[in-house]
Predict the 3D structure of the following.
Amino acid sequence: MTANTYPIDNVRADFPALRQTVNGCPLTYLDNAATTLKPEAVVEAVRQHYREESANIHRGVHHLSQKATEAYEAARDKVQHFLHAEQREEIIFTSGTTAAINTVAHAFGSTIHADDEIILSEMEHHSNIVPWQMLRERTGCVLRVIPITDDGQLDLAAYEAMLGPRTKLVSVVYVSNSLGTVNPVQRVIDAAHAHGAKVLVDAAQAVACRAVDVRALDCDFLAFSGHKIFGPTGVGVLYGKRVLLDALPPFFGGGDMILSVSFERTTYNALPYKFEAGTPHIAGVIGLGAALDYVNALGLAGIAAHEEDVRDYATRLIARIPGVRLYGTAPEKAAILSFVLEGVHPHDVGQILDTHGVAVRAGHHCTQPVMQRYGIPATARASFSIYNTRADADRLAAAIMQTKELFG
């Protein structure tokens, strides 16, 4: 499939949210890096669960519980195949990327001691910064930060110089949510492993637009959120190599993560349930499974070609507008355009664009170190997805021009 053969009309018809108008204009939804819209198939999967099989999982012997359990565990199989994981037990359901990273910070963090080093990058989301700062407060470990270049790439020479015998973990984003940069995670992983360090990959922005193969990457941990890939909010995935997950202690304690409990001692359940305490977001997991079915049916290669076409077209349009400065111009990047309009605060840009039905994100995008790196308080961010078109880019550019004229 190419950008020319991509079934864009059929895809747009699958997303009911796109049928509405905002302020009298057709909705132009360009806030996909924050959360994606949901196709009818996902909405129906969630609705069917609540209508026909709304029961708790694993512990019930009655019919509804069995149906819910089957659907829940079928979603785990879908995630396993989607990530090309070796075993289904390596797939842990969480409430999202944030919870997945926090789980690693607590579980793997139990192996971290004072003066051990953890390497992050300057472009990380706050969810991949704060948990490690909290670990530093508990253990006295050292955090080191990979700088980024002016065009938004990792300074790989600086990174490789940081690695050493004290490096225990590298935690890095695959695709930057604020710059769109696609990081060379294979090189990051290989370099870390050469020094005996483990690697966690934040793939929240990557999974919806590129194939992710955890075995080929050889990453030790990987996290993503369902709502970034057309699934429900409040559900996500932590992948971990089984040999690591088996050895690590659980983070949360409670139901379903135990085999037996007495006041003398508790015996923990086997993987993956050791890390899935309590009643999970069952409908969310089922909805995530439906979202992966949808993406697989459309094909990640076709998705990538389509998004690249719209991204390149939008970039050409926006770059020609006087007073616009783009941030994140790396050669390898996703369909994310972050920009500043001279003389206009990004929040004002976002509000004016909304009057034209154009939804973008304005702010620091939970990446304040990125904003500090470039000496700006915020950007306006347009992020494109599978249902966006060149016409959406035209409406974005026209709305920016009208904003520029409004502010003189």
Summary: The chain has a mean pLDDT of 96. The first strand starts at residue 21 and ends at 22.
